[in-house]
Amino acid sequence: MKCSAVLCSYNGGRFLREQLQSIANQSRLPDQIVFVDDHSSDDSWQQLRLAAESFSTRGINVQLHRNAQTLGVTANFQRAIGLASGDVICLSDQDDRWKHNRLLETMAAFEADPDLLCFNANADVIDASGKRVGRTLFEELHVTDTELESLRQGDMSRILPERNLSTGATMAFRSSIRNVILPFPQHFVHDDWISGIAWLVGRTTTTLKPLIDYRIHSGNSVGLHNLPQSVAAEGEHPRLTHLRWQLRRIGPMLQRLKVCDALHHGHAQQLSSLQKHLTLREAVLAGNRGYNLLTVLRELGSGRYHRFSRGMKSALSDVVLVRKNVRS
Description:
- The protein is α/β, with parallel strands linked by helices.
- The chain is built from 13 helices and nine strands.
- β1 (about 5-10), α1 (about 15-25) and β2 (about 30-35) form a beta-alpha-beta unit.
């Protein structure tokens, strides 16, 4: 089984050399390396050219490209992933630092499980100087014990509609799903999209063991402190905003599976049921005509409040808002 390491750069020269060295020091080297620079104005391109020469002398197939104009993080990764030829595609950010066994343990996970489509890992957080701050990535993200167990088991049913806990910096996936994940839709970060689609059509897992050092600094392109989130419109109830946010996340995924004729997978059916539940709750809270207290009671009887929300607690809170809508 062959592995492609995919690294995208954009004005990352400050930290790029350390990342490239960590890839060169892997106990299991990649079979191919894809470098795509997004028209950097610093010395990133020069560093990639030198690295490409070095990796080539070690018998590694190197694809080296520079965009004619800046495409942005997601579009740049889309181009780079399209150039990868390995059975497994292992993503790399430009400013982190791989632990020496990252590729070895990643490939071992895929070799041990033929049904595994996407593999993620934890990370040790480091600062701009490369010093560990004493926390892991999941601790920095305040991932709960329940979420950690769901990630380990590959159960994304509760996590996927809420937030992205699969960072591209630690992600690897089988190239066999590339025709489903590409192209990336607008308003989605590439890692969020890949992990969601992979879970919908197959199996994913996450090791809680850190396999990279994840660097936090002021120049992160997509980092812990600038992730997409829901923002309430003026006068809109926060719960309604959040429901609409969830629907915006899962809708494009289900549409992609429909186009690729992959809606028959079990997880896709589960997400379709969730979409129906959220759409109904959105209509109730928005005060749409024909959606009322009886609607909530019917939905509660269907079991979807317990399966996808917080059961009776969510149903009762929706009833309270329905009554307020009626009074107003």
